[in-house]
Amino acid sequence: MSGSAGMSTGAAVACLGVAAWLLGGGCAGSRRVRLLHAGGGAVGTGPPGWSRVAGQWARVRGRLRAEWWSLAAGTVLAVLGASVLPVLAGAAGVPVLRRVRRAAGARRARERRGDAVIALCGALAGEVRAGRQPGEALLVTGRDSGGLGDTQAAVLAAARFGGDVPHALAAAAREPGAEGLRGLAACWRVAVDRGAGLAAGLDRLEAALRAERDQRADLRAQLAGARATAVMLAGLPAVGLALGAALGADPLRILLHTPSGLACLVAGGVLEGAGLWWALRIVRGAEEVTG
Prior knowledge:
80% helix, transmembrane, membrane, Membrane protein
């Protein structure tokens, strides 16, 4: 049993090494290929045809989403444990990880849009203070702004042809992260209807949006430790399995091929998933209170 456990441990270490090599960008040959494609200089020496193979692998790896590594890890464990259960678990983890990746991408897009709204308010205030009319200032600053989102054409058309700019800004504010455009629409309406200073209102709006963004960033930094702790604790069972394999206990055979092991695996997986979900839900709830 110790010999098979040693072979399993060696195979697992080899698979982890290959995965780290692939995630780290391979060897210097693939980096030279990427430099060549980016115009960074000549490619160094290497085996014949290696540059083409490395370039093709770089393109494939760019298209391969992160969630598919769950299926790859399940396949490796299935081979080591001689069971189909890890493959099924890895396949079940693909949609979960895809949802996590998309949620992270949506959060980053929302943050970028919020930053663009803040920059738009500051640039628009500067243009108005420099003597431009509000519509002209919005045309100048809105072309390069990402805060207007998909409704940029409608907002710029309203500013160019004397349309209802506040209504167009309110429509643009429906996109996640662009809620600050509602304040811009209110400032615009007050400035047009009552003749109030648009630049002063935009300065106050920019300061308020910036303070709110900084508060969210500070809260996220304070919660980063709790999130990292939850993820680290979730990975401890995998560390225990690796230690057990290193000591010759062959935990994969026990978990995947014995009734008691299967019961422990199911119960542990359910408790692990529930605990991780609950901990991250608490962190997200704290973020949403301020957001």
